[in-house]
What we know:
Number of domains: 1
Strand order of the largest sheet: 1-6-8-9-5-7
Amino acid sequence: MKTAFVHLNKDWNADPNAPYEHVDVKVEYVDLSFDVNPWIYEGYKEGQRAALRFYGCSRWRLGPENDEEWYGGGCRFSKLAPEWGEFYEVKGNLLLDKCPSDWNYISPIEGNKHYLFYLRDTTFECDANSYEFIENINT
Length: 139
């Protein structure tokens, strides 16, 4: 099956310069927190933190792949994902033969969806059952 991308962030995104991403693993979920982009999307202030909360997460990674690698063809989804800097659900062929090995495993039960978020200098991926966007979080 062909690799397909469902674009999930329609009216928000991470700060394109310094998102200060952080992963926090809890028993019930995994949070990826980051600074929101206040320059393109209305209703956000500079330095405002948001999070993607993943439920039923079986594994996650925050890897070193950045925009230069993606544009240069060095990432596993280079030339396939529609745009750098966006949040996607990836369906179909996950190109596991090209998958990095720096995963953090949480549960032996696999999440049934694969999520991918390209941040400024890193790439976040996880397998989870669902996610929630949390607009304001405490730092």
